[in-house]
Amino acid sequence: MKIKVIIETKNHEILFQGNPIHLPVREEDIKRVSILMFRDEDPCIIHQSYAVQKLIEDMLSHFGKKTVKHVPLNEHLEHVSFLKFDHLSELLLSLEVK
Predict the structure, then answer these.
(1) CB neighbours of residue 29 within 10 Å
(2) Using CA atoms, how far apart are residues 74 and 90, in angstroms rounded to an integer?
(3) What residue segments make up the domains of the chain, in order of their start?
(4) How confident is residue 78, by pLDDT bands cut at 50, 70 and 90?
(5) Distances (CA, A) of 47 to 24, 51, 56, 71, 84
């Protein structure tokens, strides 16, 4: 299964388009997940990568790993709050699943 994520403004200005693993993730969330999973307050690159994967996987699972179009993120903040975008609650998410 191949998934493409699109994050855009309400004016349809695309801020991100691509593989979900390349989404920008807040450092404090990477550290939080690393502490929870590995008790590692200064995560190495392997723990960082795994933490990012876990955050992304949880988000995709929330949306059912199916195609969705222009979903307002303000309705799903608890599942996307780790994303590193300004004004996250004003953005839209689309997933293309093939």
Answers:
(1) 16
(2) 6
(3) 3-97
(4) very high
(5) 16, 6, 14, 30, 19
- How is the beta sheet containing 14-18 ordered, strand by strand? 14-18, 3-8, 92-97, 68-72
Query: Does the model's pTM come out above 0.85?
Result: yes
Helix or strand or coil: residue 19? coil
Task: Give residue 65's pLDDT.
Answer: 85
Structure tokens at 26: 């807040």
Distance of CA 11 to the CA centre of its chain: 21
**Which amino acid, residue 15?**
L
Tell me the sheet residues that pair with 96. 4
What the block records as the tokens of 67 is: 């195609």
| CA 68 – CA 71 distance, rounded (Å) | 7
CA atoms in the 13 A half-sphere facing the CB of 21:
5
Residue type, 11: N
Render pLDDT for 13-37 as a digit per residue (tens, 0 to 9).
Answer: 999 999 999 999 999 999 999 999 9
